[in-house]
Write a structure and sequence with these properties.
alpha/beta, Rossmann fold, Isopropylmalate Dehydrogenase, 6-stranded mixed sheet, 5-stranded parallel sheet, 11 strands, globular
């Protein structure tokens, strides 16, 4: 961490997550210290009810190191990471759990189990990833997408990226989110495909995305700085006031969110959307506050979906 301040989980997310019962969440291949610490923090905060999948001896060992009595929680014995992922996917498909959290498991193994035909967790919408960024000193919520799943999304994939992020913003209480389509310019340039795609998506969104303003292309300063937008003569509700930033590719998104985390002490709560249940792609490198915030975000998404059904 290059920033000097400790990352903090936003209390607004915790309050919203606690508005309903703890989210019954599968912890996949849970037998590792950082995984059990994440589950402990989220359970202690009243955000999740964990269901552990993995080596029961290892799970109990790390729970004991935390002085955590897990006798009241279900533990599903699984011989290896693949079987743990398959069992968790089956539990999610059958409605026994309402969210799935990545534990000590390779991401490709985890995602393959969740997205297999047998798991039956796919929907008509593509899976995308969103980071909820809490930046010290900045008011309001900021969503970045897609920084972790889709490598170089085409226009059709970006439509799902936008819609999933807008749905998340609605769940967070943003009634009409402002969506900025990021490029390096506010003009369309043939040499810069992201600028052309942004204009196509802006036109598509007018009739296809409800309760949101979608606009691009916009450079980063024009997305977040009202002064920069005024100076450059860009007059649009999104310019300078973005709630959601849609990045052109995973390299841009990955660099942007990590810069905000490591230089600005931002708390990055990440969640996979577009499946039948929220997917928490936590990392060993995430600070505890970010892992807790991700669990809270999943609870908010599920609670909102239940209320809207």
């Amino acid at each position: 961490m290059l920033g000097k301040n400790q990352v903090e989980c936003p209390q607004s997310l915790l309050r919203a997550a606690r508005s309903s019962a703890p989210l019954r969440t599968a912890i996949v291949n849970a037998g590792a210290a950082v995984v059990m610490e994440s589950a402990y923090d989220a359970a202690s905060a009243g955000v999740i009810e964990p269901v552990f999948f993995g080596d029961s001896d290892a799970i109990q060992k790390y729970a004991s190191e935390l002085n955590w009595d897990i006798s009241g929680y279900e533990v599903i014995e699984s011989g290896d990471e693949q079987s743990a992922a398959i069992a968790a996917a089956s539990a999610a498909s059958g409605g026994d759990v309402a969210a799935v959290m990545k534990g000590h498991i390779h991401t490709d193994v985890f995602m393959r189990a969740l997205l297999s035909r047998n798991a039956n967790l796919r929907t008509e919408r593509r899976l995308t990833h969103v980071f909820h960024m809490t930046v010290p000193g900045r008011e309001g919520q900021l969503l970045l997408t897609d920084c972790a799943v889709n490598i170089h999304p085409d226009v059709e994939t970006k439509k799902a990226v936008i819609q999933n992020a807008v749905d998340l913003a609605h769940a967070l209480g943003i009634e009409k989110p402002k969506v900025a389509l990021l490029s390096a310019t506010e003009e369309q340039m043939e040499q810069m495909p992201s600028s052309i795609e942004a204009k196509l998506l802006t036109d598509w969104a007018r009739d296809s995305v409800k309760s949101a303003d979608v606009f691009g292309p916009l450079a980063m300063d024009l997305a977040l700085s009202a002064d920069a937008a005024r100076t450059k003569g860009v007059d649009h509700p999104v310019a300078g006031h973005a709630d959601i930033i849609v990045v052109p590719d995973i390299v841009t998104g990955n660099a942007l969110f990590k810069m905000m985390v490591h230089y600005m002490n931002a708390c990055a709560a990440g969640i996979g959307l577009g499946a039948k249940v929220p997917i928490l792609l936590t990392s060993r490198a995430d600070p505890p506050a970010a892992r807790l915030a991700s669990a809270a975000l999943a609870a908010i998404v599920k609670n909102h979906g239940d209320q809207s059904a």
